[in-house]
Specification:
By secondary structure, this protein is of the alpha+beta class. The protein has one domain: Aminopeptidase (3-Layer(aba) Sandwich). Helix content is 35%, strand content 35%. InterPro entries: Acyl_CoA_acyltransferase, GNAT_dom.
């Protein structure tokens, strides 16, 4: 089956659908021991419809992959983010989420290409990301995209810290 995937900037009207997409992918990836209170709190706040609308309105830094006008993947660029390893400020790929049903269809590659085009157009030549140390599928994907590990850092939630690889890519 051929999927026609389109890439575009997120719009405020996408917030509800993106909220569900973020929650679903996040929980599938990280809730390997079930849905803890801290995960539930984090996801409810971070991925609320209002929080996503605010991000779209303020920064317009989300790129959405759509199939039949429905979001199936999303990437978010966080400008002026401090890399925890290099301790310098430059863009972060804050999120790159794709629904499971759409894995292997080039959506991740398309989102990375769209992100890099936007970054180049704004004069940036590198960016970085965090990836959960146990998320081998994502680590492998990023390595294929020419990201390199520059160190490890911890992401803190309410009661726990989660080790992540920090990866960087120079855009050529």
């Amino acid at each position: 089956m051929k999927y026609e995937i389109l890439f575009r900037k997120a719009q405020k009207e996408d917030a509800l659908q993106l909220s569900i997409l973020f929650k679903q992918v996040y929980m599938k990836t990280y809730a390997v021991e079930g849905i803890t209170h801290e995960f539930a709190n984090f996801v409810s706040q971070k991925f609320s419809v209002e929080a996503i609308k605010n991000t779209i309105e303020k920064e317009n830094s989300m790129i959405v992959a759509t199939y039949k006008d429905n979001p199936v993947g999303v990437a978010e660029i966080v400008y002026d983010s401090t890399c925890p390893i290099r301790n310098i400020v430059y863009p972060e790929l804050g999120k790159l989420y794709v629904l499971d049903w759409f894995f292997g269809k080039g959506i991740g590659n398309g989102l990375i290409t769209s992100v890099e085009t936007e970054l180049k157009n704004k004069g940036y030549n590198e960016y970085w990301l965090w990836v959960y140390i146990k998320n081998n599928r994502a680590i492998s994907f990023y390595e294929k995209q020419q990201f390199v590990v520059i160190g490890n850092a911890f992401f803190d939630m309410e009661m726990h810290s989660y080790e992540n690889k920090v990866m960087q890519k120079v855009i050529t």
